[in-house]
Amino acid sequence: MRIGIIGTGVAGSVLAEMLADAPGLAIEAFDRLQEDAAAEAGTGLNVGPNALKALRLALPMRHAAVRAASLPWRRWFIDAAWGERLFDLDLLDVAEEPGIRLRWSELYRALRAPVAAFTRRGLALEALEEDPAGRLAPVLRDTEGALHRPGGFDLLVAGDGRYSRLRALTAGVPAPRFHGIALTRLLVPDAADCPYDDYGQWFNGRARLLSYRLPGGGAYIAGSVPLPAPEAEVPEAVKSAAHQAALYLPRDRVACPAVAWMVDRIRRQIADLHWARLQDSPLLRGACDGRVLFLGDAAHAMVPTLGQGATQAIEDGIVAGLVLRRGGGVTEIGALRDARVEFVRAFSLEASDTMLPGGDPVEGSRAKTGADFLGKLRRLYTDIPGL
Ligand SMILES: Cc1cc2nc3c(=O)[nH]c(=O)nc-3n(C[C@H](O)[C@H](O)[C@H](O)COP(=O)(O)OP(=O)(O)OC[C@H]3O[C@@H](n4cnc5c(N)ncnc54)[C@H](O)[C@@H]3O)c2cc1C
């Protein structure tokens, strides 16, 4: 069976490694990025303990590699901008091992290394044809504009992310759902004087900062900015240093040292802020009568509130790999993954309550210490069907 993987980000790389030595399967992978191109190279990512559990059980060498490239994510606290503690969790109370925090480029490096030998880089999927046997045959364009036709595949896997070309070609472009929140990302290269280490969140009204230190001495700062309406674009005025500072500094109290430090860094590096909007899109697992499989963001882009985008992409790649190795297909993968993904998507949105219109950041954060939220976190971090 010939399997073609379009996109070696998180899900595509994990699946490719899972299938690399499977008897009877021939794997080829394609990615539009050249070897040395590193998208989002600087910014940080926290990956949940559930992805680490999946890697530990299915790909122990990859587990070791991502642990070596990262710092442990062991703690999650939520403070008000003036320093009042609202929530403080040791992840080991609800998980079997810590998560990780690392740079996106380091995660990609660790996941891509074992599949480099059978990945063709600098080739972007453009169109689909059928070969004489009725198999799907991708048409890819290289960086010089030339077209490549690597032949027909029994199964094509979309690991090409949120704006998946394979999903667009076979099932249409999914309609994104926006939630009225803008997101900023910033890498602080030198965070030697940063007054915290592990994963924290700080609320000033519904505006929220999230930050943690990264390997190599840097820190990652993410901001959540309420927008006037769910579909609203980000107003230019919100992007100024003065507006950013006013968003996160409490008006009638003294900011805690962590918030003061982050606001100072945002002011200094205002030109480096990367902007996006909180969004998700409907789940779709397959197309073309089981000849196309969607994984990761191509199947289910989700809101990043619980750090589950790349985390679920890892789960997807591992469970899909286990199923394909034993001769199963898209239906069986969907049966194991889709209810799990819907739970994670719903819980991620539920956990965003404190940032959404009408949300109460103080009471909403305190409520996360309750049995209901912690029980769902335990399910999130430990219960992976199909492992
Ligand atoms: C602001 C923000 C913060 C986030 N924070 C977190 C977090 O803290 N933790 C977390 O777990 N997740 C987080 N995520 C989500 C996470 O980044 C994604 O969910 C994850 O990268 C999805 O993995 P993937 O393998 O599906 O796709 P990607 O990692 O996006 O990989 C897609 C791959 O496909 C390739 N490709 C694209 N188009 C083509 C084409 N036409 N032909 C060939 N190749 C192609 C790309 O080059 C890339 O290598 C965040 C996302 C955002 C936007």
Describe this structure in words.
- The protein has 387 residues and is of the alpha/beta class.
- The chain has a single domain, classed as 3-Layer(bba) Sandwich (FAD/NAD(P)-binding domain).
- The chain has 12 helices and 19 strands.
- The strands form 4 sheets. The chain has a 7-stranded mixed sheet with strand order 6-5-14-15-16-13-17, with helices on both faces.
- A hairpin with a 4-residue loop joins strand 10 and strand 11.
- The chain binds flavin-adenine dinucleotide.
- Flavin-adenine dinucleotide binds next to helix 1, strand 2, strand 3, strand 9 and strand 13.
- Pfam families: FAD_binding_3 (PF01494).
- Keywords: Monooxygenase, Oxidoreductase.
- It comes from Paracraurococcus ruber.
* CATH top level class name: Alpha Beta
Query: If you compute it from the alpha carbons, what radius of gyration comes out, rounded to the nearest whole angstrom?
Result: 21 Å
Strand content: 25-35%
Largest sheet: 7 strands, mixed
Structural class: alpha/beta
The tally of structural domains comes to: 1
Strand arrangement, largest sheet? 6-5-14-15-16-13-17
Can you tell me the CATH topology? FAD/NAD(P)-binding domain
Task: Report mean pLDDT, rounded to a whole number.
Answer: 96
Total helices: the number is: 12
CATH structural architecture? 3-Layer(bba) Sandwich
Query: What is the helix content?
Result: 25-40%
Q: What separation lies between the terminal Cα atoms?
A: 23 Å
> CATH homologous superfamily - what is it?
FAD/NAD(P)-binding domain
Number of distinct beta strands: 19
- What would the principal axes of the Cα set say about the shape? globular
Protein name: FAD-binding domain-containing protein
InterPro entries: FAD-bd (IPR002938), FAD-dep_Monooxygenase_BioMet (IPR050493), FAD/NAD-bd_sf (IPR036188)
Keywords: Monooxygenase, Oxidoreductase
Organism: Paracraurococcus ruber
